[in-house]
Amino acid sequence: MNSKSKNEITRRKFVKTAGAAVAGSMIISPAFSNILNEATGKKRVAMVGTGSRGNSFYGKFLKEEYGDIVEFVGLCDINKGRLEYSKKNIGADCPTFTDFDEMLNTVDIDLLMVITVDATHHEFIVKGLNKNIDVVTEKPMTTDEEKCQVILDAQRKSKGKLIMAFNYRYGKVFTKLKEIIETKEIGDLISIDLNWYLNTFHGADYFRRWHGIRDKSGTLLLHKSAHHFDLLNWFIGSDPVEVYANGALEKYGKNNAFRGENCRSCEHTKECEFYWDITKKQKYMDLYVQNEKYDGYLRDNCLWREEIDIFDKMSVLVKYANNVEVTYSLTTYSPFEGFRIAFNGKDGRLETHEGIPWRNTENEDEAKLHEKEMDNSSHTKMEHKFHEIVTQRNFKDYKRIEFPYVRSGHWGGDKLMFDEIFRSKSVNPALNHPANVRDGSLAVLVGIAARKSIDTGMPIKIADLTDLVPQINKWG
User: Fold this and answer.
1) 131 and 240, same domain (yes or no)
2) Residue 192: pLDDT above 60?
3) Distance CA 119, CA 140 (A)
4) 10 Å Cβ neighbour count for 273?
5) Burial classification of residue 187, based on how many CB atoms lie within 10 Å of its CB (0-12 exposed, 13-18 middle, 19 or more buried)
6) What domain of life (predicted)?
7) pTM
8) What is the mean pLDDT of residues 337-349?
């Protein structure tokens, strides 16, 4: 063993000892400070990353719904064309920057929102925290354990607070499931089975974009599954301790006989079932295509390109500190979009599903489902549809609940999360909806451990990744 390895082990032992002492301090109230601009009475917000999510959810929606208490004081992006489009689209009367440090050092910011490429989140989070600024970050918090540790260290030193934008927690159907779990209707949890299906429109789209490159997204075990792992952590109320996973790239990337540079210039449009015509989506033409000249980013990139190196099928086993076990899978080329989730308890079972075609009274356009999930302005409720939630105690008949169906705004969670962040309005304080830096860390650590497990073929212990000490009961 070389001296470097010895030093790393010595440090790890030290930080774990220190971690045990500060474990409680990491479970901090995620509510932000109430510092406001004295002149306007509003919170000064800056945003880095002006892609589609920054424009819609964090930009236009925030400006329209919370303009009475929020003002944009800075927008930042490396692509100056996208930056100018975003300023107009959002309706933000503020300066723009292609240099983040310049924005941070010249603008008075109360709250920083980070919506950049996943692998760069840590850079902006840490710089914001180092300036004692409150930070909201899009999922995943980061993409590897070293960056995660850097964020944890920065949070411990900062007067600012980091909050994870885990809007799934606030989703109305997921909140209902959490409420049922807390009533002990099925007794103490012993296991959860979660199968998530991305269809050939939504799932494939990740492989057209930068998400298909591991060094940028950390794989979908981070970019997408962070949502799911956080839901599981939240449902269980305990920390993950060990992960084993399998995965492969078998559909997209090099797994095809032909490929092109991008869909617009491809000669295989008639034979490719995944051909996507970006010219029919004016927003993307204005936001991305018109600004390719600045950074070369192709929004309609070929999903058969050989550089793709993430998994397109994944299955994960997770063991928790309270002995609950999870089986999870993510499919990226399903004919339909949805999920199945089942909670097994000592005294019964709870389950629900979404998007399973033969369980629905009518089918929806698969190409439009993701748009409905992301849309905060319409399709908020469908009176003729419902989430079927079933509970059954051992030796008893089952109970069936027809829970009101909500699809848009991430099952109605977007508005509820922003209400909590910006208006201090809580749905149910006892359910611990807000997610802090520890929650963000544990969600990505499951994904990081799963990726490592696939690469090595070995189970990975969460405690070996950072100095976070797993707790049996997160809120006890």
Assistant:
1) no
2) yes
3) 9
4) 6
5) middle
6) Bacteria
7) 0.90
8) 97
Number of compact structural domains in the chain: 3
- According to DSSP, the β-strands at 348-354 and 460-461 are unpaired
The sign one gets for the Cα dihedral 71, 283, 420, 218 is: negative
31 lies in a domain?
Answer: yes
| Structure tokens, 423 | 């208006």
pLDDT computed for residue 427 by the predictor: 85
Domain stops at, among 135, 167, 199: 167
β-partners of residue 189 are: 345
What is residue 27's three-state secondary structure? coil
Pairing of strands 240-248, 313-320: antiparallel
Count of H-run helices and E-run strands, the chain: 17, 16
Within 8 A by CB and 6+ apart from 55, the residues are 85, 86, 89, 90, 287
Q: Which of 350, 442, 436 is CA-nearest to residue 125?
A: 436
How does strand 348-354 pair with strand 96-97?
Answer: unpaired
Residues 75 and 150 reside in one and the same domain: yes
Q: Are residues 196 and 343 in the same domain?
A: yes
Contacting residues for 28 by C-beta, under 8 A, at least 6 apart: 161, 436, 437
DSSP 301: B
Cα dihedral across residues 16, 18, 21, 27: positive or negative: negative
Our measurement of the distance from residue 280's CA atom to the centroid of its chain's CA atoms, rounded to an integer in Å, reads 28
Q: Is the dihedral of CA 220, 223, 224, 227 positive or negative?
A: positive
For residue 11, pLDDT over 50 is answered with no
Do residue 41 and residue 188 come from a single domain? Answer: no
**Is 119 inside a domain boundary?**
yes
Question: Where are any strands of DSSP class E within 204-324?
Answer: 240-248, 313-320
Strand partners of residue 301 = 262
Residues 11 and 68: beta-carbon distance below 8 Å:
no
Please tell me whether residues 337 and 388 are part of one structural domain: yes
Question: Residue 346: in which H helix or E strand, if any?
Answer: none
Q: Quick one: which of 56, 82, 75 has its CA closest to 287?
A: 82
pLDDT at 26 over 50: no
Residue type for 56, please? S
**What is the extent of the structural domain holding 232?**
170-248+312-423
> For residue 332, what is the domain's CATH number?
3.30.360.10
What residues have CB less than 8 Å from 247, skipping those under 6 apart?
A: 221, 311, 313, 314, 315, 450, 451, 454
150: pLDDT strictly greater than 50: yes
Rounded to an integer, what is the distance from CA 421 to the centroid of its chain?
17
Rg (CA), the chain: 22
Work out the number of other CB atoms within 10 angstroms of the CB of residue 464. Answer: 13
Q: Which residue has the tokens 């799963």?
A: 450
* Whether residues 118 and 200 fall in one domain: no
Q: Please indicate, yes or no, if residue 266 is contained in any of the structural domains.
A: yes
